[in-house]
């Protein structure tokens, strides 16, 4: 009998011997007594980590959220740069030095008359104010505003994804703990069965084969427990990677069913309106449209107001000071640029089409994800009642079989099979229970309201009108298993006072501009003895220093040392020739005297039957290369 345990891509397969394999998310083993106390209490101790605490910690420490958060801040500065195009530009120019001049007539006569040398100075200010640029600046600012919206939505998208990953790691850790506790209980049950069989064998009521069968099943149960402990340690690593800390005491949360939409269609509508991935795609589409507007501005002239003032002294051999000032309206209008502007506009038309198709793809994928999550929740709920009845029935069967085995009414194999059936049924029930819990959070994440449902703060966004609020009488902290005095402080994911130039490592010794190795010469060849102009030897070993199995160095084989293969023996049918430089092949045929220099008629045969028309074959002798015998 077989059973599969699965929660969001994690799958565990148990056979009748209790062996298991697979699993993506693991955690370490806690005893069944501690786990039962946590579940029964409904809330952890002061050191317990609630689901909300785990999600908040993941958002504050996970680098994936930090990447998009820093990108958002960078894009906001790009918007400020775009708005700066509305402001005037003020430039200062100046120079100072020594200038020597000579009169051209005197130079022709060969005299020094009219030659002057004197210090010269110049200072100038120019103010340029854009008056009209075909509304290119308006389009650029609008494009950057849409990019800020897109970057903000990406932060929310990444936060929802990381929150979902944190919930999956948290629930999978709990699930693996419970499965390990079930495996530990299964080992104890097999140990009691072995003791019972040994007692019966000592009294002559059981055979040696029965004892050996019980020992075999106990060894299989112990192996299953060992594998479970290994899977739990793996889940510890996954939990630490996603959430940023090792798991301590975890509490099974109560599903936030109050936050779910009433129907599947309501859930799909919520996802299409509020899913952050769709919002990102919409903002990207609007950004591309504004870029198209900016591209069309190239067909308009630019009009600038220029105000300048210059002060010059002793310029061009003239002693004295010169002052000048000007106020100009300067118009620049490009007449021809090699069709680059029109081709740029055509490119942006198709970029808009690409962005629109990306939006359509995001809509389809989001709707599919919502329907899959809803179906997973419905399927898990439909299975729960039957699986609970299955566990209860298997437990009664196991107890009945044990009583009958005590009085000789059942054999050992039937009792062991009953214990294994109960073990599998318990595991299936635990998996389905956690699948139901996770499906609820998966629906909320797809709808873009996961963090709002958990009341976890986000970066750069307030609460949306679509975000659900807990109904009156619902204690969110208690539902999520939060303990007193626990939790990670809320607020921004990253420190706003972070020094971007600070070293990454804690020791402060990292120099990002230092070479990877002080002795590394980037211009040095890969091998000082390598001749880049030497012909390639395809028959040489990949590593000249490699050794044979006997430990002796392999000889270096050169192409010129390879002897041509002996002539092929005559054949009476078609021959398939493979060319080393081609993936195809061709059929040729020759007779035993076809190694001469004249064309010979040839009729290919298969099973002594002629194939095709006779052909003339021009035989060629094999020379040199062993790769293409029939080039």
How is this structure best described in words?
- This protein has 631 residues and is of the alpha+beta class.
- Among the domains are: 3-65 and 146-280 and 357-479, Outer membrane efflux proteins (OEP); 562-631, no CATH class.
- 47% of the residues lie in helices and 15% in strands.
- It contains twelve helices and 15 strands.
- The chain has helices at 32-41, 51-61, 63-83, 104-109, 136-202, 208-243, 264-274, 276-296, 340-406, 412-446, 450-454, 476-479, and strands spanning 3-7, 10-14, 20-22, 48-49, 89-101, 116-132, 249-250, 302-315, 318-332, 575-578, 585-588, 600-602, 605-606, 609-610, 615-617.
- The chain has a four-stranded antiparallel beta sheet, with no helix packed on it. A three-stranded antiparallel beta sheet has the order 1-2-3.
- Strand 13 (605-606) and strand 14 (609-610) form a beta hairpin.
- Helix 3 (63-83) packs antiparallel against helix 5 (136-202), helix 8 (276-296) runs antiparallel to helix 9 and helix 9 runs antiparallel to helix 10.
- The longest helix has 67 residues, at 136-202.
- The chain is elongated and about 135 Å long.
- The relative contact order is 0.13.
- The model is unreliable at 1-46, 462-466, 482-550, 553-562, 564-600 and 615-631 (pLDDT under 50).
